[in-house]
């Protein structure tokens, strides 16, 4: 067990103005699952990029020992040749090619440039069996879910004779069933002697599979914990990550619930692309002033689709149903109308749908309500700068100024900019779709605090989340969705991970 | 992983500043270097008053179209049809003026409206039917060219009435001649006074901006650069103004062009419409979800391009004094090249009016300089192509290094 396969010694990597890694040491034994944790910006991905040769030898200080020898990788293919395969957070699959084509992309089974299809398909089938995916090799990537795509990535890694598999946030976009399947697969690989490094924010998962946990903080190694020697609690890991105890991951709140703000009745929506398929069935819900309402459910349950169809018909077609704001019917058929009605929608995908990454904080903050900082179509620079400065300090956005491009901000700070944008439209009800996805523990706490403040100011919050503890920790009431229907409404007292899962499972049996 | 942004950034040094803004200064430096180069190799012909006037007349339409094209490129699209719109507008202006004998005062606005409709017609397909602009405007390029042949019956029409030609060959009359201290050298006092006033305005607004920035704690460029830039602009502007004043003064086209440049700079930097176009080009989905009517914005961007192409079409037709079916062939490429040399990004969201204008002048000075040197059209094309590639490579190289 204690055969060291990888040792990274005193790795230091600097970017202009920033020391991303400072004297980091990292040791992995053969055949273990080693978790790498830390807040966003702690240096996890940078360390893995150094290891895989994305940052070639010479651009960092320190040594990499792999398989007993010092290695100097200058490209990714150098490290792949030795069986170090990294699967990035954003999957690198070509959507319109088949599973088989993707698995052997750049590594085709071919003679003189002519692909040997029968052999390719046979090999693919073998690999898919290994990862437990029952799909035809000729299925297009775009036709399978994210969970299965992740498995295809792993199959691709296996095709390259992987010895050290690195997974960067593999379960970030997976639901619990898919995550479990993936983790089981990793444990299966461990039995066969493969080594894995897993980067994750989901501490419960890490606890489930990891043999060792290395914690990074601010570009340095804090400690390596051995899960077999002691019982490691989540709080213990968090303490290492943030450098302080975090007794309560959710800030306390005294709910002061007022009148009903938003009411949605008989919301029916057909699928955006499969036009004759009804996707949402008779969805009804309410959000009251000062209330945080959660929507729980598995991936594909229709939560995001509910929010987006409500917000200016941004998703789906043949949308029917009634929307009331403070008891009065409102028109939400276009996004500007929905904004006028007092709705705001913070998307789950802040990089692609939330921010204009190449624009700065100021420009993103005022984008939805430019009219408020301009007269006759001319922007008042001072007013705009003041608005952005105010939100920057109110939401504690960490940046050197409001003129910093949002692409250079960490996930948590990007999310705060998106929140600023929507707060500036002065909404009555905010729909937050996965507001803490991919955000580190410290920033999550800040987002929860902001949510509490908004509720205290009398706004209604509708929060969609795949992390059940988060919903349980922040919401006053939780709706459970499954297969396009609301299948349960649970009060704070009734809600628990078990009761939510039970509601989902029961509804699944009915259909 | 993103570099840690919570750390307070150190005050950027002058070298850092230069590195981060090398593109903008580089462009200005490139223009000056190219001008000086041709001034030397043409033995001073380039900056002769008559040649400066020519330079302006020859390039005004490229600059004017580059203003609209920049908006289209920033919005994430492209317009290949402008050369054909130029030809078609030339043709119908000829029909109206020469065949029907309508007055210019009617024809000019009518042509601008027709241009706007042509642009809008393409904008409709791009914005509302989601057909890629490359395809729509490629179709437009063929359709409008074909329409030009139909309208003209394949034959050139001319000459044009004087009142129409003034548009491109006229000069601002010298109503300030009584102030002229040296009538021997200075033939047109208005040109000189106008340039002096403009330079003074530019310096004043530069200082004013710096003061406002300081008040809001936003970054100013280091004073050295500000001063150098102002000095270069002042010297060049005064020199050109003086040269023009010794000839026939300010060409009307230069005035039109100057007003449009100022207008579009203002729209792109200060107006909500401009801001929304940049946001849309940077991330269309995010802009849409922020409540921006991206379809309508795209539609108007193309309509605007049509109007500017129509204006350019009339200027060219008036200058050539004849409407021909082959007018404007290949102009779209010069216009697009000017935008890209000026630093616009092919994927949208990035680009400046000043960049596009300087880009157009870099192309213009090279065209003019090489023609004076007697370099054939074959080599001119070759050299311009390489300059375009080099400019964009410079961009990409800087981005990767940064």
Automatic annotation (TrEMBL), chain A:
Listed GO MF terms: ATP binding
In Pfam terms, one family for this protein is ABC_tran
Residue limits of the ABC transporter domain? 6-243, 264-508
* UniProt superkingdom: Bacteria
UniProt keyword Cell membrane present? yes
Record keywords? ATP-binding, Cell membrane, Membrane, Nucleotide-binding, Repeat, Sugar transport, Translocase, Transport
Has the keyword Cell membrane been applied to this entry?
A: yes
Q: List, alphabetically, the NCBIfam families matched.
A: GguA
Family membership: Belongs to the ABC transporter superfamily.
State the protein's name.
Sugar ABC transporter ATP-binding protein
TrEMBL record, chain B:
From which organism does this entry originate?
A: Mycoplana rhizolycopersici
PANTHER family membership: ABC TRANSPORTER PERMEASE PROTEIN YPHD-RELATED-RELATED (PTHR32196), XYLOSE TRANSPORT SYSTEM PERMEASE PROTEIN XYLH (PTHR32196:SF32)
Q: What is its main location?
A: membrane
Fetch the InterPro entries from UniProt: ABC_transp_permease
- Pfam families recorded for this chain? BPD_transp_2
Protein known as: Xylose transport system permease protein XylH
Q: Name its cellular compartments.
A: Cell membrane
Q: Which residues form a coiled coil?
A: none
- Please verify whether the record's keywords include Transmembrane helix: yes
Q: Which UniProt keywords apply?
A: Cell inner membrane, Cell membrane, Membrane, Sugar transport, Transmembrane, Transmembrane helix, Transport
